[in-house]
Amino acid sequence: MLTLSLVVTALFAAQPATQPPLEEIYIVDADGVVLRSGADRNFYAFMEVPRASLVRVKDVFNNWGRVSADGPLFDQAWGWVRHPANQPGLFKVVDQQTGQTLDSMPFYAPDLSNADPSQSWRQICEVPVDTRVEIIDATEGEVDNRPFHFYKVRMPRHAEGWINMANLRPAQENEVVGWIDSTPTRMETVIEMPDTVVSDVVEQNATEQTGGSTSQISYLARYINRHNTNKKIAARERLVEAEKEEEFVVRGAVVSQEKRYFEGLEKIFNSLPPTDMSDDLATGLWEGYAIVAEEDQDLDPETAQLALIRMRQLEIASCIREEQEALAKLDAVVHVASQDVEAMRTVLDEPTDYVVLGKLNVSSIFTGNDSRPIMYRVEDPVNGRTLAYLTANESLQLGEMIGQWIGVVGSMEFDSRWQVQVIDPERVDLVAAIPGLPF
Length: 439
Hints:
Elements: E1 2-14, E2 25-28, E3 33-36, E4 45-49, E5 54-61, E6 64-68, E7 78-84, E8 91-95, E9 98-101, E10 105-108, E11 123-127, E12 132-143, E13 146-154, E14 160-164, E15 168-170, E16 183-196, H1 198-209, H2 219-269, H3 279-295, H4 301-349, E17 356-367, E18 374-379, E19 386-391, E20 405-415, E21 420-432
Helix pairs in contact: 2-3, 3-4
């Protein structure tokens, strides 16, 4: 007995995994279009998108398209990764143009309206651990009064942004040629054919040598040839059935694994309200659901649809959290304004004999340099003329009242050396914290 090998050669055009479907590709059909860090005009813009650019829209939310960072538009796109100066174990500079993450790091979108990297606060994806990145530039700065190292790097292909669908139109097939070049790939599959008799090969060779005619070989040879041909067909059919069964088992295993991953996300999602989640937790959940929504479209469409719903819920919760933060800031402003009103009421109800009333400001003359003392100046609110100077007194915390209306109690004398009126303050009252209020 001899085992033969059947070589099946398939030639096909290999399309990369990032090749998008035609229905996901749009063309920018307006001027002044920008890519934003969220699905709303309140999110800042981090990339200009010229007219006629091709973009891939993977999802639509409230007429805002979620654009993935693939395609020619993003070849030169960039953003920021950063780490505290006292935590060098997060990122390593390999050379002048290359860096490597030593831990997973947030990737922040740049702010077109502010070049300062410390103002780029919106995270749009994560750079996995042990990832090599191209460093375009590096600088230092502060975040919340802490020193940071900032690295300007190329944008990862899994990053995403948002664009208004009113500025887009669907692309036609002839308009997306060249998005991604396809390279023909040759694949050879060897199928082992067992239990083939050596005489079968001899008979087949004999048939080939006679030009394929069976009239010159014996009846027995023709019988054996036909019998072996049927055996080969049956073996191929068994192989196809085995492949189908194996594919079914593998598919079931993949679905089961994906189900466990999705159930883990669901446990975290249901553990607390989305509006109470931290930004890092919400972003991690959103990215997890995005993986399920994209990879389970064929394996488990229902789970993929539920993952899309969860993504929208997290996006809405993010907007609610931002609104709550804005309201909290507004409450703080109202509280300060209320304190100002109380201060004004106290001044009006209990008049004090102030030696001077005016707006407190710093002095550009008496700064402590050139043997001059450090003093503040009280200026006329109408014409800005200096009314008097106040000697520095740490107990009065004058630095916290800069730009505010004050009343000064104390003795004022003319300093013959510096030729100015100087007050040695005993008490300084805050008359109003809002410039423009009358006395």
